[in-house]
């Protein structure tokens, strides 16, 4: 090889070895502008380089860059992992450091640039390159030439077809290759704005629009070689550009398509108006060398079989200190300026050109702002979005006192100074020398420039590089170092990638994607429930950070199970009647979720079901003379599989539910419909998850006279989340689970929940030779995410203000990608750590993944659940079943989620999550947050439509002499009536409790606990209670002490003079009292009027009368007269945060779905009377008291008494009890 250097001294250059004589390369000046160039004489496939210091000296390099070129110009920097440019050098003058290139390079010229060297020596080097000669066939096309190869019939069809080539061009558009076949179908590879497109065309007419199948690559017009492979295999097309591949499904029309000819450039002007201009190398079709074939025939126009490359010198401005200074116009006259250049950049702003205005002593600036070109403070020139990475031309001319700017051949941007334009002697591109004492008011330019002209004469940049012309600083001359960080895009889930010169960004504003790679949506309705959300529409991201896009579904949380409901295009009951000439009805169902989302939901759910109702009259399903069914349906993955069983039966049974149970109306058939009778029959619910969802339905026997049928395919309903509750308990610090190596080379997204009582421990780790990844609890308040991808260890910390070893569930989200690392704990702000701008980014691991730790780090003791790596859930439970020291599952969810149960609701443990038992609460709903309300209108004197609750079912023998020594009464009301009776409780001994609003709009509590004495009246001081606003009343009595609280006012305390015993309670009445013989005359008059207004959340000790009357009328000792309708009279959104049943914390929208009960009686006499059996109360009180003792003995953590601890009934109603079984419920 031949050696060439910049200002160097070469003394007997030896290759790296233990040489015995002096030798090596050492430039005269040791600075960053030196380089050593090697001409290998021909294009060579280089696989490795080795360096050594200069023999017998203190001169060696510690780091360097490598550049390659085919022509000695237009250099390309070699980058490891597409990121790292620097190679490690030597630590002394004698040892040899060899570096094997990850991707071999084919080039003739090699250039080495020193970056750092021994600080006590100089630049010194011995260099050796390893490789072998590269042979190839090359063709050069000038845009008007073509090369066509027509295949012989024997070569037309193979199981695998591959077209491969290398391309090099300066043009960003043009048809590269096309393959034509039978029927006018063709595939073509076309360059468009530097990207390679795979297009499908049907027919050769101008009206046929191409269909884009794939787009790959970027900046392919950089005049460097790029590898392209197009492969058809099976039902897929694989397009590869350089190191990146995109796979697409072959369209149906191509399934039997044969290639008839392959061409370079198109002979059909309709197909292409712009042909390829550049060089192609090693064009192969199924290992057939088409260039070699073309040398003999089948080429037209100016085709040469060598690569004719124009020499174009570019210059790169990489940073803030970069500038290029060249001489200005040779003659300064009134119109003496003409400057032209081309540039490409990703930045919207940057200073392009600066020159002095001698006449005025000022400076003119040509700059980018908002991706448009401006001069000084004039209007912008034509052209926009000039930060697209494409080459754009700029021409600046001054004529007769006017500046004219032309951008991409479009003139505009005229500026008319009020003085003659006289330009200084120097022009500065991209910045200005700091020694000029002139501040730059604009952002720096980062990008490339080429084809610089002054006075229509080209600027010789090679002379500038040799310091023979002008001046420069921090430039890369004879190369364009632009990099497309968005190709391929690292943005997930449809995020749009944008970039500047140094970084890229993901824009999720117009797509459902991620913030910093972490999903903002939960993976199931179950997860939304455990965040405190209630029924509504939510986006479900079923695989977290995986590739499946989030979908909007409905979450029904009104039942004990949380249902995910996925709708389709027709879930209504539909009638089918005979149609002339139609023997079968075919029906398709399109679901609101995409296919992969549907299958993932079914896979991770514990149970799924779908209603398939078929109502038939003389419309048979299964039996025919030929033995094949009349009707069937398709269900399962993809288009579905044929299913001949119906609701309630087993797959492949060809039966309905009655056939399985043996109770069909005709024993000779397995479906009631097959009895062929005129009565209506029904068949119902599908629960086999492998057959879901229903894709299509075929109905056959409906064409006969008298045949009728209706069908309904309901929405897909699933509950449970196997991923969310997949957990393992590590009972020792030495316990661990192991899984295969985690492959998160470019992106590692990790999420899990943990709970522990330990102050530290490693959650997971995976090791490599040097690289590693680890997440650990470093202290009781800190979680650390640490990793090393070859740049040295990096750590991201999150500090919590509360202890994390509180045995409650905490969520950890960690991500590491090519841009940054991120760690989030619970709802705390995420901590981030930026990745090095020029460093390794491939995470290379080779050991097993350990949950817990197998290294010397302290292991984890506690529970981990819902562990997901890049959207894939690890099955901790299955692995724990066969691993000593680890147990599957992890109970104890109420300690974390019990606070979601409101209004005296009890948290009940379940194997997968929890359930709020509202049996002892006056409220209903998933969190016992939905109030039960009744609204009464103006009463009349008719008894016809009463709502009357009577217990007549229990025998009189249980009416014993149990005595109440206290009550806990609460309710809410809204009324404009005064006086008004709110609540009345009577006794068999003519004793009573009455709660009323008196004529002064104040609350009165009347106790008559001795039938020989007058009632005692306790009057609250709170006024204006009949103002139509919602008020809440709470009354507590312990023997003769009574406390009353209204709304948020202070409690008022009263004392009774009686003995404080309420004997044998008889009934509880809401509204008008008919049996008023035991009442005082004034109270009897008031009781006969009834109540006009709204009552809600009525609670008497453990009794919830409204809830019993309205939600459980059939199982409660209640008689209701009058219609019941829904009402929202008791809602108070300002007071109750759960009144909006659909709370979308993420989307910021809510929808009121709360359900309230309205008792509306047209005749106006409205009462809810509940006869309370005294013995029943005694049993209830004793049962609940024992439960309290049980809870106290168990010492359950986190259980709080909301009210005074000395109130004897508080234990059964006002505490957040944690229970492992369902408490019994009494409606008395």
Automatic annotation (TrEMBL):
Q: Which domain of life is it from?
A: Eukaryota
Laminin G domain mapped to chain residues: 138-307, 313-480, 726-890, 943-1129
Print the keywords alphabetically. Answer: Disulfide bond, EGF-like domain, Membrane, Repeat, Signal, Transmembrane, Transmembrane helix
Domain F5/8 type C, residue spans = 1-132
SMART domains (alphabetical): FA58C, LamG
Q: Does the record bear Cell cycle in its keywords?
A: no
Q: Which residue intervals define the domain EGF-like in the entry?
A: 891-929
Extract one GO cellular component term from the record.
membrane
Compartment(s) where it occurs, according to its Swiss-Prot or TrEMBL record:
Membrane
Q: Which Gene3D superfamilies does the protein's record reference?
A: 2.60.120.1000, 2.60.120.200, Galactose-binding domain-like (2.60.120.260), Laminin (2.10.25.10)
**UniProt cross-references to Pfam families, sorted A to Z:** F5_F8_type_C (PF00754), Laminin_G_2 (PF02210)
- For bias type Polar residues, the affected ranges are 1209-1221
Q: Which residues cross the membrane?
A: 1162-1185
Per its UniProt record, what InterPro entries does this chain match? ConA-like_dom_sf, EGF, FA58C, Fibrinogen-like_C, Fibrinogen_a/b/g_C_dom, Galactose-bd-like_sf, Laminin_G, Neurexin-related_CASP
* Entry membrane topology: Single-pass type I membrane protein
All copies of the Fibrinogen C-terminal domain together span 516-568
For this chain, the annotated S-S bridges are 863-890
Annotated region (Disordered), positions in chain: 1202-1228
Family label: Belongs to the neurexin family.
How is this protein named in the record? Contactin associated protein like 3
């Amino acid at each position: 090889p031949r050696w060439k250097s910049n200002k160097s001294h070469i003394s007997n250059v030896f290759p790296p070895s233990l040489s015995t004589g002096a030798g090596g390369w050492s430039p005269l000046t040791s600075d960053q502008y030196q380089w050593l160039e090697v001409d290998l004489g021909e294009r060579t496939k280089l696989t490795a380089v080795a360096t050594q210091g200069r023999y017998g000296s203190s001169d060696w390099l510690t780091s360097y860059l490598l550049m390659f070129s085919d022509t000695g110009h237009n250099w390309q920097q070699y980058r490891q992992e597409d990121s790292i440019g620097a190679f490690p050098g030597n630590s002394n003058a004698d040892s040899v450091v060899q570096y094997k290139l990850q991707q071999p390079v084919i080039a003739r010229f090699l250039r080495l640039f020193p970056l750092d060297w021994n600080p006590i020596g100089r630049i010194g080097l011995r260099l050796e390159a390893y490789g072998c000669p590269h042979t190839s066939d090359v063709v050069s096309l000038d845009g008007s030439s073509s090369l066509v190869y027509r295949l012989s019939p024997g070569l037309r069809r193979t199981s695998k077809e591959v077209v491969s080539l290398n391309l090099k061009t300066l043009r960003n558009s043009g048809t590269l290759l096309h393959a034509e076949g039978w029927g006018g179908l063709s595939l073509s590879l076309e360059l468009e704005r530097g990207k390679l497109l795979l297009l499908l065309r049907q027919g050769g007419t101008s009206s046929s629009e191409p269909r884009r199948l794939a787009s790959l690559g970027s900046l392919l017009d950089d005049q460097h070689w790029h590898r392209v492979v197009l492969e058809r295999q099976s039902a897929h097309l694989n397009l590869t550009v350089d190191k990146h591949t995109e796979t697409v499904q072959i369209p149906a029309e191509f399934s039997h398509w044969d290639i008839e000819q392959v061409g370079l450039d198109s002979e059909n002007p309709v197909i292409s108006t712009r042909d390829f201009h550049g060089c192609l190398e090693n064009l192969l079709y199924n290992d057939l060398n088409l260039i070699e074939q073309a040398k003999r025939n089948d080429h037209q126009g100016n085709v040469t079989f060598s690569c004719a490359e124009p020499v174009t010198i570019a210059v790169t401005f990489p940073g803030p200190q970069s500038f290029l200074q060249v001489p200005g116009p040779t003659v300064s006259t009134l119109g003496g300026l003409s400057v032209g250049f081309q540039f490409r950049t990703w930045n919207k702003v940057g200073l392009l050109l600066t020159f002095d205005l001698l006449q005025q002593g000022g400076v003119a600036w040509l700059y980018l702002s908002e991706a448009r070109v401006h001069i000084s403070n004039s209007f912008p020139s034509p052209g926009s979005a000039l930060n697209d990475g494409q080459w754009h031309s700029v021409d600046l001319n001054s004529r007769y006192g006017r500046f004219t700017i032309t951008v991409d051949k479009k003139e505009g941007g005229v500026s008319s100074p009020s003085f003659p334009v006289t330009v200084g002697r120097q022009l500065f591109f991209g910045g200005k020398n700091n020694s000029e004492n002139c501040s730059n008011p604009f952002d720096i330019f980062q990008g490339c420039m080429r084809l610089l002209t002054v006075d229509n004469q080209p600027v010789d940049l090679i002379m500038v590089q040799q310091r023979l012309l002008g001046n420069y600083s921090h430039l890369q001359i004879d190369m364009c170092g632009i990099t497309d960080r968005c190709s391929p895009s690292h943005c997930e889930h449809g995020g749009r990638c944008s970039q500047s010169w140094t970084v890229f960004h993901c824009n999720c504003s117009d797509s459902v994607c991620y913030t910093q790679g972490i999903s903002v949506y939960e993976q199931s309705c179950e997860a939304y429930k455990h965040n405190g959300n209630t029924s509504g529409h939510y986006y479900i991201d079923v695989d977290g950070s995986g590739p499946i896009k989030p979908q909007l579904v409905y979450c029904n949380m009104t039942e004990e199970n949380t249902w995910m409901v996925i709708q389709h295009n027709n879930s209504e009951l539909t009638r089918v009647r005979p149609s002339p000439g139609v023997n079968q009805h075919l029906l398709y169902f399109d679901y609101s979720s995409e296919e992969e989302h549907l299958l993932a939901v079914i896979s991770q759910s514990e149970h799924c079901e779908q209603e398939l109702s078929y109502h038939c009259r003389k419309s048979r399903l299964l039996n025919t003379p030929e033995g094949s069914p009349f009707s069937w349906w398709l269900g399962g993955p993809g288009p579905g599989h044929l299913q001949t069983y119906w609701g309630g039966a087993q797959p492949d049974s060809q039966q309905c539910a009655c056939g399985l149970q043996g109770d069909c109306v005709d024993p000779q058939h397995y479906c009631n419909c097959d009895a062929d009778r005129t009565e209506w029959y029904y068949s119902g619910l599908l629960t086999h998850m492998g057959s879901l969802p229903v894709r299509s339905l075929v109905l056959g026997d409906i064409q006969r006279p008298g045949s009728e049928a209706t069908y309904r395919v309901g929405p897909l309903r699933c509950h449970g989340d196997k991923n969310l509750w997949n957990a393992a308990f590590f009972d020792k610090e030495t316990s661990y689970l192991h899984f295969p190596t985690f492959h998160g080379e470019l992106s590692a997204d990790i999420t899990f929940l943990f709970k522990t009582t330990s102050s530290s421990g490693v959650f997971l780790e995976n090791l490599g030779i040097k690289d590693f990844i680890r997440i650990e609890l470093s202290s009781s308040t800190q979680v650390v995410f640490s990793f090393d991808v070859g740049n040295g260890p990096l750590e991201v910390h999150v500090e919590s203000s509360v202890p994390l070893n509180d045995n409650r569930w905490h969520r950890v989200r960690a991500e590491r990608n090519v841009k940054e690392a991120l760690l989030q704990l619970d709802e705390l702000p995420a901590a981030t750590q930026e990745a090095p701008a020029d460093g390794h980014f491939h995470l290379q691991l080779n050991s097993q993944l350990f949950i817990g730790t197998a290294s010397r780090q302290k292991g984890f003791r506690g529970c981990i659940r819902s562990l997901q790596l890049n959207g894939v859930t690890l099955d901790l439970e299955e692995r724990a079943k066969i691993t000593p020291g680890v147990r599957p599952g992890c109970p104890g969810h109420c300690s974390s989620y019990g606070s979601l149960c409101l209004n005296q609701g009890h948290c009940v443990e379940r194997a997968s999550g929890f359930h709020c038992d509202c049996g002892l609460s006056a409220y209903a709903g998933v969190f016992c947050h939905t109030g039960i309300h009744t609204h009464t209108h103006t009463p009349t004197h008719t008894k016809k439509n009463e709502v009357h609750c009577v217990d007549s079912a229990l025998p009189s023998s249980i009416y014993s002499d149990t005595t109440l020594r206290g009550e806990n009464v609460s309710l809410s009301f809204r009324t404009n009536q005064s006086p008004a009776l709110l609540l009345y409780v009577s006794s068999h001994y003519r004793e009573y409790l009455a709660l009323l609003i008196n004529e002064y709009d104040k609350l009165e509590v009347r106790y008559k606990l001795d039938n020989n004495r007058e009632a005692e009246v306790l009057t609250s001081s709170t006024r204006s209670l009949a103002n139509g606003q919602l008020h809440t009343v709470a009354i507590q009595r312990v023997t003769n002490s009574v406390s009353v609280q209204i709304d948020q006012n202070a409690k008022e305390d009263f004392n009774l003079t009686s003995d404080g015993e309420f004997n044998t309670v008889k009934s509880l009445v809401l509204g008008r009292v008919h049996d008023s013989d035991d009442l005082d005359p004034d109270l009897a008059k008031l009781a006969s009027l009834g109540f006009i207004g709204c009552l809600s959340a009525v609670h008497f000790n453990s009794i919830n009368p409204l809830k019993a009357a309205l939600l459980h009328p059939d199982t409660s000792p209640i008689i209701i007269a009058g219609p019941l309708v829904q009402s929202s009279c008791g809602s108070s959104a300002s007071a109750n945060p759960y009144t909006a049943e659909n709370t979308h914390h993420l989307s910021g929208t809510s929808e009121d779905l709360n359900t309230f009960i309205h008792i509306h009686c047209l005749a106006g006499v409205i009462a809810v009377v509940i006869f309370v059996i005294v013995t029943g109360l005694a049993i209830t009180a004793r049962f609940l008291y024992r439960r309290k003792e049980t809870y106290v003995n168990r010492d359950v953590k986190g259980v709080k008494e909301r009210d005074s601890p000395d109130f004897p009934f508080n234990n059964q109603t006002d505490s957040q009890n944690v229970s492992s079984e369902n408490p019994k419920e009494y409606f008395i």
